[in-house]
Amino acid sequence: MADALQNFIDGKWVDAADGERFDVFNPATGEVIATAPDSKQADVDRAVASARRAFDEGSWWPGTSARERGRILLRAAEIVRREHDRLSRMESLDSGKPIADGQEDIGEVAFMFEYYGGWATKIEGDVQQLSRDAMFMVWKEPMGVAVGITPWNYPMMMATQKLAAALAAGCTFILKPPEQTPLTCLELPKILEEAGLPSGVLQVLTGFGETAGAPLVAHPGVDKVCFTGSREVGKIIMRSGADTLKRVTLELGGKSPNIVFPDADLDAAFEGSANGIFWNQGEICSAGSRVFVERSIYDDAVNAFADRATSERLGDGLDESTTMGPLISKEQQERVSRYIEIGTSEAKLAAQGSLPSDPRFEKGYFVAPTVFADVRPGSQLEQEEVFGPVLAIVPYASEDEAVAIANGTPYGLAGGVFSADQERAVGLARRLRTGMVDVNGGRFNPVAPFGGYKQSGNGRELGAFGLEEFLEVKSLQL
Predict the structure, then answer these.
(1) 171 annotated active-site
(2) For the domain with range 7-252, which CATH number is right: 3.40.605.10, 3.20.20.450, 1.20.120.450, 3.40.190.10?
């Protein structure tokens, strides 16, 4: 593991202009595993200048053939697969997640390069004849210099789903990875350089939101910003981007509901709902943090979720017996712990798992998986995003009541329905004010559009919709 990371700007590995650095921690132990450049305005200016040259001068990157752009992304997919084990271990070490989850994430990274590599040759416009002597053409063109500001819960995967779509569209790209987890994001320039990406098309600079992310959003040389993170930061980005009327895509938080009906396969429903909050330590924007259970099966549900919470094994993500790792930082550990304190005054503490007993993890950022029952609609625990392994169980008496409570938050990212009656499940899914709904435990699919309603963001990532977010539409009248 390199202990002194560098930015990648204009095809070169460089330190921050002022030489300042910050520490990167192993969240399982609290130990420093690397240092990274603390980038600021001067580094942002240099990165934007390089990306603008690659896009503007002779249009030599957006003018590259779609076939060549596709080939580069397909080669990148193969390199990721070749390096799968190394990258998975790096991801687990940096983020704390169990190694099996890291392996799955890196597999998705390879697929996203492959998927958008195929899309590069399928960006199509339109031609319409208006009369015998008049017609118009529609062209789709790359938006320009795009910035991706990415989160720490899926470091390489979230970066790649933005980057691969942008490159397929013909944009140049500046990645600002999370300061907590920069390791695998800094592998992307090496992978794409080997795959044949020209110098200057991709820049990666590390740093903090206030001193690196904010200057990128405000920079007049940036055409597009895509951000995944908190609702509060998303609002700041939207306000700042308005000064230059940037295209802005925001994938923000959620308070996603899972609604369980008595006719469902209850073992599968309880297992799927538990996975929805305990996977990835609950650090998932679409986590099913609220479970709505009909009163006739309520006690069985509470017992099932309690059993699951107390059976989780917390520890080092690189230990294959670990089922739940630490949270990402001391700050996040304290934040989630505060919500657990709030929950004990608002609801019934149904169960809480065990922290690691190994003294190696004494300074790690662990929080025991926690289940609250009898959570009241409108309470903090029911309304606010916790972003940790904390489940709120809400009883309901009727479908209308469940839908009304489920829709009664400012968020609208995801939701789930469990019922043996598919017509009923799909009908209820249509009533949920969310951008995504799983029926009977449908899994994440990177071909499907990802994004939310209301204050969960705007725009979409992944699939064909994610590609369109990096394209402008031009009409030509003849």
Answers:
(1) no
(2) 3.40.605.10
